[in-house]
Amino acid sequence: MGAAGPSRGAGPCACACAERTDEAAVAADTCAIIVAGGSGERFGDPRGKQFVNLAGLPLMSWSIMAFDRAPSVARIVIVCAPDRAAQVEKDVLSRLSLAKPVALAPSGETRQESVRHGLDATPRDLPLVAVHDAARPLIEVEQIEAACGAVRADESLAGAILATRSVDTLKLVEGTTIVATPDRSFYWAAQTPQVFRRRVLLAAHKAAAHEDYQGTDDASLVERMGGKVRVVESTRDNIKVTLPEDLALAEATLERRLLA
Ligand code: CTP
Ligand code: MG
């Protein structure tokens, strides 16, 4: 696998969907990295949550299709366990008619390592990378474009991430005792995609690996290097399928969209 992994479909999309009509106006300057190399322990299905059926397709198919339709995206790297690569090819990619070239990269022990492997498989000539969890099947083209557009529009930014404002009152707790109630208006919940200038994210990942730092998302690696990362307000629809009950919610949202 790796940069020399399977590649497919470089031709233009035949579909005449609305997102494509603007394509000429937007730079296709982004490589998507879709990380699908986790074991889904909390979800608990032996097939792996990225492969379970969601509205008729393996769950990871939905985010791949969204990135394939996004005008900013020129290529897609899918990170998966090496022993699942054939399954990704057969059960996922061969069932989708994708317009963009797709390569596979091998996953690592941690999500962070998987992203790093994905980054190594991105081409140097695309200045932006958009890191996305395969476990977030409800991502929409407009949200991908908003995050890519935010980085493109502001040279001072190292990156931009989708996030939602915190709706719950937050408590800082030690043991079971509340020690503070911070001002909720300062808190946002991070999602993916997280879009960065490729060279900045690569440097941040190299530094984190060198210093043995494990972050909980990619933005945190860039922030600790002093990079400016902004939030782009997202919707609560863009859930990460983590527990079995999340699947029914994702299914209901997709069906609502497909019927709209
Ligand atoms: N991921 C990855 N490589 C890893 C771990 C996670 O590519 N070593 C991916 C997952 O496939 C998922 C995304 O990172 O798309 C977010 O991770 P998470 O929701 O935590 O998925 P899992 O790690 O698979 O689930 P769990 O933590 O319950 O085992
Ligand atoms: Mg995990």
What tags apply to this protein structure?
globular, binds cytidine-5'-triphosphate, 11 strands, binds magnesium ion, seven-stranded mixed beta sheet
Topology, element by element:
Elements: H1 18-21, E1 30-35, E2 53-54, E3 57-58, H2 60-69, E4 73-80, H3 85-92, E5 102-106, H4 111-120, E6 128-133, H5 141-153, E7 159-165, E8 172-174, E9 177-180, E10 188-197, H6 198-210, H7 218-223, E11 229-233, H8 244-259
Parallel strand pairs: 1-4, 1-6, 4-5, 7-11
Antiparallel strand pairs: 2-3, 6-10, 7-10, 8-9
Helix pairs in contact: 4-6
The protein binds cytidine-5'-triphosphate and magnesium ion.
CATH superfamily: Spore Coat Polysaccharide Biosynthesis Protein SpsA, Chain A
Portion of residues in beta strands equals: 15-25%
Major sheet summary line: 7 strands, mixed
Structural class estimated from helices and strands: alpha/beta
Share of residues in helices: 25-40%
Total count of helical runs of at least 4 residues: 8
| The CATH top-level class label | Alpha Beta
Q: Which regions contain 5 or more consecutive residues with pLDDT less than 50?
A: 2-21
What's the number of domains? 1
Descriptive report:
The structure is a single chain. The protein is an alpha/beta fold and 260 residues long. The protein has a single domain (27-259), classed as Spore Coat Polysaccharide Biosynthesis Protein SpsA, Chain A (Alpha-Beta Complex). The chain contains eight helices and eleven strands. The strands form three sheets. It has a seven-stranded mixed beta sheet with strand order 5-4-1-6-10-7-11, sandwiched between helices. It has a two-stranded antiparallel ribbon with strand order 2-3. A two-stranded antiparallel sheet has the order 8-9. The protein starts with 17 loop residues before the first helix and ends with a helix. The model is unreliable at 2-21 (pLDDT under 50). The site of magnesium ion (MG) has 2 residues, from loops.
